[in-house]
Design brief:
about 220 residues; 2 domains; globular; alpha+beta; single chain; Pnp Oxidase, Chain A
Length: about 220
Amino acid sequence: MNEYTKSKLNRVKRGANRAIYDVEKINTILDAGFLCYVGYIYDGKPITIPMAYCRKGDKVYIHGSTANRMLLSILESEETSITVVHLDGLVLARSGLHHSVNYRSVTLFGSLKKIEKDSDKTDILEWIVNQMVPNHWDSLRPMYQKELDRTLVVEMTIETASAKVRDVGVADEPEDYELPIWAGIVPIKQIAEYPIPDKGKPENMEIPKHIIDYYEANK
């Protein structure tokens, strides 16, 4: 089993029994989504921004405008922290104190570099689009050069990471279990609803198979 080395930076202190350092399990959590939260300092203030991402090996990629202050700030600092979280359930206890959620979360730490070559940027943008909806990139028109020129792509090499997972039921006080109060779990999941075509030609077009496949797999 390949694990990230535990350090002061990535070690889970609170709820350590839920901590995961296994690389494969962490990658599975990363690959289950496409939205992350990127932390940075701007003008002395801490800010967190949601971003689309993809993972390839030990690399995570994000992108934005060449004027994006977050991307410029983290490139200047040459490091960042990225968090991914999936909400799996509401844990409703017999007391307000013991309410919780079931979740899978990962926090990554690593070094950064700017992707310079247009061919590399194009490949990475394809990965990001396809992480959102598999096989979607090939149905799109090629990117214009001016679009590539305005796009900043950043590569993060994961140097260390940790995950936390809660996937258990209610943890009430022993004396509360006999109270006539409903307790339990409300499962939560993200679902896809039937695709809605844009105005114009798509209204009269057959929905592509890969989009229907995504809908069927996630409805």
